[in-house]
Amino acid sequence: MIHKLFTFPIDMIINIGEHVKEEVDKEFYDLETIQKKLIHLQMMYELDEVSEEVYKKQEEELLARYETAKKLEMEQWEELTKR
């Protein structure tokens, strides 16, 4: 019982860290999220809310993230199908 009292703060920090990592991974490596951001960026560009320079830079970053996410997805798929 006393052990739980002392480890609770550490366990809580670990739990929060894992949750933050999941959210970051979702933001950076979730294909659907990246696609939505690309669509949103395209709309902003077409409505002249961002310059062509900003558009191209952000598009390049998003496409690189998409490519990385797709590779990760393929690697996971290959791991699952090996078994």
- Measure the end-to-end span: 42 Å
**Count of DSSP helices?**
3
**Main β-sheet description:** none
Helix content: over 70%
Strand content: under 5%
Uncertain stretches of 5 or more adjacent residues: none
Average pLDDT reading: 88
What is the number of E strands?
Answer: 0
**Whole-angstrom Rg:** 19 Å
Quickly give the structural class. Answer: mainly alpha
Order of helices and strands: HHH
Morphology: flat
Short description:
By secondary structure, the protein is mostly helical. The protein contains 3 helices and no strands.
Please give a structural write-up.
There is one protein chain. The mean pLDDT is 88. The chain has 3 helices and no strands. The chain has helices spanning 2-29, 31-46, 52-82. The N and C termini lie far apart (42 Å). 90% of the residues lie in helices and 0% in strands. It is flat. The longest helix is centred in the C-terminal third of the chain and has 31 residues, at 52-82. With 83 residues, it is mostly helical.
Topology readout:
Layout: H1 2-29, H2 31-46, H3 52-82
What distinguishing features does this structure have?
83 residues, mainly alpha
